[in-house]
Amino acid sequence: MAKAPFSRLTPDRILDAVETLGFTTDGRLLALNSFENRVYRVGIGEGRSIIAKFYRPDRWDNDQILEEHAFIEELSLAQLPVIAPLKSREGLTLHALPDFRFSLWPMQPGRTPDLEDSAILKRIGLLIGRIHAIGAIRAFKYRITINARNYGYDAAQWLVQNRFIPVDLIPVYTSITKEVLSKVEALFNLHPARIFIRLHGDCHPGNLLWTEAGCHFVDLDDCLMGPAIQDLWMLLSGDRDIQAQQLQTLVSGYNTFHRFDPSETLLIEPLRTLRMIHYAAWLGSRWTDPAFHSNFPWFNTQRYWQEQILALREQSALLDEPPLLI
């Protein structure tokens, strides 16, 4: 991983890249909140703006990015509220500079939805059900599948091998990750259907934009193959009773267009466990990028890893609890 992969992405290069696709920029340029890639709001005159997204080098290959774009277009053609990339005159959505690949997107304002409003939550569930009905039609060819190996074992091993775990904590970290991942695998094996479909993959509240017209889904950069519950559990919060009520509301909308398998609630805590381990490895793999040092100063400290181990121990106990009932 390059130490500063975006250091050569200057404002002039950003504006020049947008203008190669026929837009006339007016000099307005605003960096948006994105760490994995670099995303900018670019003014194109008369108060209008578009979004320019520059992909982190060496993360996804072209086939994986184009498969994401194709999935978004498939959803858009079904009149789902997703934000689709703009096409060039030649019909292309992925473009290249000597050092970077990029795409352009329409500007979509909005706010985080109020997930305490049951009507909004049910509406979101309905839309996710529609997305999954289309996602279940065929499988991804190039995108990854979430499992204990790539999101768990590989991530934990990478952290140890690259010396992120303090030496004195390696034995306990290795032990607790082995313990929780063994439970994760066992619970995945207990899931009777094991039906994996195309998913948003990172469907947390920050990737939902609420407007007067309803909800818009953005940032399918992490779309993947996995169980349907992956796009639902990150919208839950609070104690078990509250989460069960929230999930029931989501599912009441979801079932309008796609049947939710209640047995998938068994996978909520396993998926949460994988996200915890994978997130730490993601931060580690980006630690040579200066933007991560300034925005995640608490990462890779002795205290961080002690708290991570404690959180995994708590997660181990949660993996032993019965699943949510809806």
Describe the fold and architecture.
The chain is α+β, with helices and mostly antiparallel strands and 326 residues long. It has 2 domains: 11-106, Phosphorylase Kinase, domain 1 (2-Layer Sandwich), CATH 3.30.200.20; 118-319, Orthogonal Bundle (Transferase(Phosphotransferase), domain 1), CATH 1.10.510.10. Helix content is 41%, strand content 11%. It is built from 9 helices and 9 strands. It has helices at 11-19, 62-77, 118-135, 148-161, 170-190, 240-254, 268-285, 290-295, 302-319, and strands spanning 29-31, 38-43, 49-54, 95-96, 101-106, 197-199, 208-211, 214-217, 224-226. The chain has a 5-stranded antiparallel sheet, with helices on one face. A two-stranded antiparallel ribbon has the order 6-9. It has a two-stranded antiparallel ribbon with strand order 7-8. A hairpin with a 2-residue loop joins strand 7 and strand 8. Helix 4 runs antiparallel to helix 5, helix 5 crosses helix 7 and helix 5 packs parallel to helix 9. The longest helix has 21 residues, at 170-190. The chain is globular and about 60 Å long.
Taking all Cα atoms into account, the compactness measure Rg is 21 Å
**Element order, helices and strands?**
HEEEHEEHHHEEEEHHHH
Number of domains: 2
Inertia-based shape: globular
Task: Quote the CATH topology of the largest domain.
Answer: Transferase(Phosphotransferase), domain 1
What percent of residues adopt helix (DSSP H or I)?
40-55%
CATH superfamily of the largest domain: Transferase(Phosphotransferase) domain 1
Mean pLDDT: 95
Which class do the helix and strand fractions yield?
A: alpha+beta
Give a short account of the largest sheet: 5 strands, antiparallel
Which CATH class of the largest domain applies here?
Mainly Alpha
Helix run count: 9
Low-confidence stretches: none
